Amino acid sequence: MQASSCGQWKKKANVAQVLNSILISSCSSTRLRMASAKANRKAATVAVELPECPVCMETMSAPIFQCQSGHSLCNSCTQNLMPPMCPICRQPLTQMRNWQLEDIIAKAKVPCANKAAGCVYTMVSRDMEEHLKECIFREMDCPFGVAFGKCSWSGKLKDMMEHFKERHAQNCNVTTDEEIELTNVDAKIDDRHLYLVSQSKMLFIITMKIDTLQKMAYWAIQHIGSKKAAHDHIYEIHILSKQNSRRKVVFTEHCFNDALKPDEVFRTGKCAVLPLDVLINFISNKKLSFRFFIKRIPAEHKNNKGDGNDNKPQGPKGPGPKGPNKDMQKNKSNGQNAPGPKGQKANKPQA
Question: What is the pLDDT of residue 326?
C-alpha cells in the first residue's frame, strides 16, 4: 500500500512539474509576442515605406479610392481617369475610401520632399503640406514676379538675392541706415512697392501698398522661412513727413512669414496701416519717405515670465547722496550736534 501511494504521489508531482513548465513557456512566449508587437508599432511610427499609386507612381495621399476589386488609386488619378475604370483589373472605380490605408499614411513619418536639396526635417505626412509651404529648400518664384507679373524666375532661396541684384537692382539696395524715398506717389491712385532685404543671413520682403478702395496705405515686412523664425522678429516702420520734419508715425509689429500673401496680411490689419486722408500730410511733390528696422527678439525677453521684481522702482545708476561722514557720527555719539551752515555757530550743549 505504501509503495503504490508513493508511486501515485510521484506521478502527481511529475504532472505538476510538466504543467508548470508549460505555463512558464506560455508566459514567456506571450511576453515575446507583446514585446515584438510593441517594437513593430514603434518602428511603424518611425519609418514606413509608403505605398505608391500604380498609375502615377507617386506616394499615395488622401483621399484614396478603391475599385470594385479593392485596388487603390490616389485622388488625382481617380479624377483624371476617363472612363473611370481601374487600370489593373478594368473594373469600375467606386467612391469607397480605403480608410485603413489613409490612416497608416497619416501616421507615418516621412522625410521632406526637399531632402535632396538639404532639408533634414522628418514629420508625419499630415503635417508635410504646411511644412512644404515654408521649407527654405523648396523651389521659389521671384517675389517681384509674384507681385507684378514681370519676372518668371524660379529657384532656391540661396540664389534669390543674386537674382535681384542682376534683374531688380533698384528693389534690393535698401538698408536700415537710410530713408527709402518713393516717387510719383499719389494717394488717389493704387500703387505697390516691394523690396528684398538681407539681414543676419536671412531674407525679408518689404511690401508697401496704397489701396484706394479701402482708403488705406499698408506696410508689412515678411520673413522668407518658417513661422517660428518669423515670429522671433519684430519690425518698425517709421513714416516721415515731407511737409514737416517733426511729423512722424511709428508702427511696431511681429513679422509674418512668406507662406502668407501680403494682401492677406493687410486684411488682418496686423501691419503698419495709415488712412489715405492722413497719408496726404506726409507727401510732398509726390514724394513719400519711410525707414524700417528689423530686430530679433532676445531670448530673455521671449522666456521672461516675470520674477516678481518687474514693478519695483529702480534707483539711479549714478552715485546717490552721501551719508554722514565719520566725524559727524563721532560728534553725535559724544552728544554734539553736527556743524551748522557757514556763518552760524553751532549750538553748545547745555550743562
Answer: 52
